[in-house]
Design goal:
Distance between the termini: 95 Å
Order of helices and strands: EEHEHHHHHHHHHHHHHHH
Helix content: over 70%
Strand content: 5-15%
Number of helices: 16
Structural class: mainly alpha
CATH architecture of the largest domain: Up-down Bundle
């Protein structure tokens, strides 16, 4: 039985979209007619999934919140002892999102054909990332899919909550930036020129601050559009340069060494690496294979290169903490905890603790940065307005002194 995405007309002439299960397109059309619907379009979800596998960037994806919800539902129902095909059917029926319903039913169709859950999820690489599929595959091979799905559900929920927390924390600073730029630009373009004309017409000598403000205002009025155009062109040039592998690799290396930025860049990538490795190894995946997959989910290509070297060292017999230490990008506390886990034989447990520690440290760092950003923007806005007001008031004070 396959899943079909349909577009149909109701008896009232309204367009309706949804998903229906049937053995064939003919049966799907018949079911729609029995419901009083007139089929307009019918597409098999499984075929779209196969196209998504060939053209991953074109395939449908799932938002982080939806993926977390689907994973939690799957984990709960599997732990309840339901067969996998019933689990997927229940999730599809409960979903109010047609895209989620279509994807889940298409995955269910592949499972009914005899494919494993991981192989079925691979039809939608954008919806289910490689880490997700590898973890599910490890759970199926080890026979502990219920426990692995529980761990995966916790991971996706934590990732989604952290992403949501950052997004919510950045709303206010972004509004401040927009407000500051709009207000200062408005004052410089519309207010300052009209006010300054009064003093220029009187023949009064203007203070240096006012002269500088007038020059800046004239520049914005005359060349502001050119400045915006240059910024846009600069962004396009930088984007095109970073698409070249050699330049992108050098840039990613710089991100790991630039003052201030390096702490955030290293912290984010090492936390993601250890967290992924912890999930994979605790799911029963061999350490070397887990290191390969964990390396591929990183965003920094230079660090990926270093960790591939570390993976080869471990494969050749080196310990994990020594291989990571030779890369030079992992904090000493993390390496000490991993070494302790290797010594005691509890590497899985120590990797989990290390991932928790590193993630908490990264969250604290982001919270501090966001907290500092707000007062800095308020300070910038206040200083800008103060300078504009002083540049306008100084000629008035000078004129009063002359009159007095």
């Amino acid at each position: 039985m396959a899943a079909f995405d349909y577009k149909a007309l109701t008896a009232q002439g309204k367009t309706l979209r949804g998903v229906i299960e049937a053995d064939s397109s003919r049966q799907a059309r018949q079911q729609l007619r029995e419901k009083g619907l007139t089929p307009l379009e019918l597409a098999e979800g499984q075929q779209r999934g196969m196209q998504a596998g060939r053209f991953g960037w074109m395939g449908p994806g799932l938002p982080a919140k939806s993926l977390a919800l689907v994973t939690r539902q799957m984990s709960t129902l599997i732990q309840a002892g339901l067969p996998l095909e019933e689990v997927l059917r229940a999730i599809a029926q409960q979903s109010e999102n047609s895209r989620i319903e279509s994807i889940v039913l298409a995955v269910r169709a592949k499972v009914l054909e005899g494919h494993s859950l991981a192989q079925s999820l691979a039809e939608y690489p954008r919806a289910f990332p490689r880490l997700y599929r590898a973890t599910v595959a490890a759970g199926e091979h080890s026979g502990y899919l219920d426990k692995v799905m529980e761990r995966l559900a916790e991971h996706t929920e934590d990732s989604q909550q952290f992403r949501q927390k950052i997004q919510m924390a950045m709303i206010y600073p972004c509004l401040l930036i927009l407000l500051s730029i709009t207000m200062v630009s408005g004052l410089m373009v519309y207010v300052v020129p009209d006010v300054i004309k009064v003093f220029v017409g009187s023949g009064q000598a203007l203070p240096p601050l006012t002269v500088g403000l007038v020059a800046l205002s004239d520049f914005i009025v005359d060349y502001g559009w050119l400045l915006l155009l240059l910024l846009l062109l600069g962004a396009i040039v930088i984007y095109q340069l970073l698409r070249q592998p050699a330049i992108r690799l050098r840039w990613h290396r710089q991100l790991l060494h630039l003052p201030f930025i390096r702490r955030f860049s290293r912290g984010f990538n090492t936390a993601r690496y250890v967290s992924t490795l912890s999930i994979l190894t605790s799911s029963g995946l061999p350490l070397v294979e887990g290191m390969r997959i964990s390396t591929d989910v990183l965003g920094n290509e230079y660090l990926q290169q270093e960790l591939r070297t570390a993976t080869r060292r471990v494969q050749e017999g080196s310990s994990l903490h020594q291989a990571l230490a030779e890369s030079g990008y992992f904090p000493p506390m993390m390496l000490h905890m991993i070494a302790s886990g290797e010594t005691t034989g509890d590497l899985d447990v120590m990797l989990e603790r290390t991932a928790t520690y590193q993630s908490r440290d990264l969250q604290n760092l982001v919270t501090v940065l966001v907290g500092l950003f707000e007062p800095l923007m308020l300070l910038f806005m206040g200083v800008a307005v103060l300078l504009i007001v002083m540049a306008i008031l100084l000629p008035i004070l000078n004129m009063n002194q002359l009159v007095g």
